[in-house]
Amino acid sequence: MKGLAICMFILCLPAxxxxxxxxxxxxxxxxxxxVYLLTGAGANIAVxxxxxxxxxxxxxxxxxxxxxxxxxxxxxxxxIQYVLNTHVDSDHTGGNxxxxxxxxxxxxxxxxxxxxxxxVGAQIYAQDNVLKRMSAPTGVQAAIPFxxxxxxxxxxxxxxxxFNSEPIEMIHQPAAHTDxxxxxxxxxxxxxxxxxxxxxxxxxxxxxxxGGSIQGEIDALNNILELAIPGYQDExxxxxxxxxxxxxxxxxxxxxxxxxxxxxDRVQVAIKKGMSLEQVKAAGLTKDYDNRxxxxxxxxxxxxxxxxxxxxxxxxx
Amino acid sequence: xxxxxxxxxxxxxxxxxAAFAQGPGGYNPIGPGVDLAGNWGPVFHEDAHERGPGPxxxxxxxxxxxxxxxxxxxxxxxxxxxxxxxxxxVHIVSYIYRGPYNLRIWEEREPVSQKLIAIKxxxxxxxxxxxxxxxxxxxxxxxxxxxWMGFSTGKWEGNILTVYTTHLKWGWIRRNGLRHTDxxxxxxxxxRHGDHLTHTSVLTDAATLSExxxxxxxxxxxxxxxxxxxxxxxxxxxxxxxxGAVPHYLPNENPFIHEFADLYKIPVxxxxxxxxxxxxxxxxxxxxxxx
Lengths: 317, 291
Known about the structure:
The structure holds two protein chains of two kinds. Chain A is α/β, with parallel strands linked by helices. Chain A has a single domain (2-262), classed as Ribonuclease Z/Hydroxyacylglutathione hydrolase-like (Metallo-beta-lactamase, Chain A). Chain A is 34% helix and 19% strand. Chain A is built from ten helices and twelve strands. In chain A, strand 6, helix 5 and strand 7 (152-154) form a beta-alpha-beta unit. In chain A, helix 2 (65-75) crosses helix 4 (96-102) and helix 6 (214-227) packs antiparallel against helix 7. The two termini of chain A are 34 Å apart. In chain A, 54% of the residues are buried. Chain B has a domain at 38-56 and 78-222: Lipocalin. By secondary structure, chain B is of the alpha+beta class. In chain B, the strands form two sheets. Chain B has a nine-stranded mixed barrel with strand order 1-2-3-4-5-6-9-10-11. Chain A binds chain B through residues 27, 29, 37, 39, 44, 200, 218-219, 221-222, 225, 230, 232-236, 239, 245-252, 254-255, 257-258, 261-262, 265-266, 269, 283-285, 287-292, and chain B through 66-69, 71-72, 75, 80, 85-86, 88-90, 126-128, 141-148, 169-170, 181-183, 206-208, 231, 233, 243-246, 248, 250-251.
C-alpha cells in the first residue's frame, strides 16, 4: 500500500506542478481544420471532430474529467472513439477514464447484426512505455486504475491511423520529456500536438528518471521543426499545440529550440571544465532566459532544468 | 421650471451650428478621430544609423534593458541568420516601423452603418498586413497564437489614434541581438499633423526592459504610390551545419564586446546600456569614472 502511494505520488508530480490551469472552466478554441483546443483542465487537450466521430488527444487532470466530456459534447454529438495520450503524466492522462467511458468502440464479430460497443468505451492509444508506467504485473497493485490504461500501444517508430477523413500519425520520441512521448500529427488539419516536449510556460521538464534526456529533448524539438511548415511570411501554416501554453507555430518552437540548445551547450562546456552540479547551478547559465521561462520553483524551474541537463550529460550510457 | 425663449433659441442654433460647421460645403457632423488613410513613407532624419545599415554589435547605449536581455544579446551571434528557419523572420510590430518601407493605411467600415470596424495597415517590409480593431472587441484568450503583428485594438483620444497590442512573438528591440520576449505589450500613438504622421511607441516587457522603451518615427504623406510593395523571402542553406546547431557565444566570450566602445572611446559599461545610460545624469557619472 505504501508502495502504491509512492507510485501515485511520483506519477502525479508533474501534474502537481503544471496543473495550475485545472481549477477553472474549460475554454474551447478552434485551431484549424478539424482540430480544437480545450484549455483549463490541466494540460492542453486537442479534439478532432468529423463525420465519423471524435478523437481526443490527452484528457487533462482527473477532477476535470466530467467538464472535459461536457466540452467535447458541445463540439460534436458524434461518439468519442479514440483517446491518444502524448505521454504518461497525470495532468495529460487523468481524465482518460471519464473520456473513455463517454465514448465507444466499434467492434465486429462473426455474427449477424451490429455490434457497436463491447462496453469498453473509447480506445486509448499511447506508446508502450505509457502502459508500462501505468500498469503493473499480475498480482501487483497498479499505480493507475485499469480504466485509464492505454488499450492499444505501439513500440517504436510511428503508428498511423485514418479518422474523420484525415491521416493521423503518432510519432515516438524515444528519450525527450520521458521515454514514452508521442508527437501527434494531424496531416490534413496541419496541426502537431507535442505533449510536454514543448511548453510556452516554462523551461522544458526533462524527466531523466523516466527515460528523458537533453539530447532526446533537442532531437524532438528539431523533429517538430521539421514537421512544421510556416505559412505566408513565416507565420501560421502548421500549428503546434504545446503541452501547456498557447497555440504556437514554427518560429515559437524555433526560439525554444535555440534556448534549449544554447543552455545545453553551456552546461556541456562547464562539465568539460570539471565543474560540479552545484557550481554549474551557481554559474547563472540561464540568466538570459530566466525572466521568461523560469517557473520559480519545482518542475520547469531553471534549477531543475540545469539539473536534468547535467544529469543527462553525465550519466553512464 | 420655466425656460426663457431666448435661451432655448440660442441653444438650438448653437447645437445646429456645431453640427454643421464643417468647413466648405460640409454638413457632416464631427466624428471621432482623423483620417489617416493614404500612403506614407518614413523620414530617416531620426536614428538613421540604426535604421539604415543597422546598429553596431554590443551597442546598447541608452536602452533600459535588463541584465537578462543584455546576456541574451551578448550570446547572440549574427550567424544565426544563416539558419534557414531564421532567414525569413519578420520584424516584429514593435520594431518594423524603424525599417525602410511604404505604409498604406485604410479604413474598413461596415457597409450599411459606416461604423468603423478596423484601421488596416500594409507595411511592404516583410509584406505585413496589420489590423487595428476599432469596434471595441476584447483581446483574445491567453491560448490564442502570438503573431508578428500581434493583436491590436485602437481608440481615438481626441485626434490621436492610440493602439494597444498583445500576443506578440519574440522580436527585435535592436537589430544586434537585443530582443524582447513574447510577453511584451505595445502601446502606440499615431498623430497626424497635416501631411506628417508621428508614430510613438511604448514597449513594455518585464523580462527584457526595466522601464518602458519609448521611440518615435515620422512619416510623410506620399501622393504618388511607392514602387516597392513586395518582399518575397526564400530561405536557403548558406552554411552546412550539423542538424540543430545554433550559433552563439558562450558567456563572457563575445569577441565584439569592445568594438563599439573602443570606436567611440566610451567605457564598455556604458556601451552595454541599461536604464541609467538613458538619462543625462549618466554623463556626470561617466566623467567621474573616466577621469
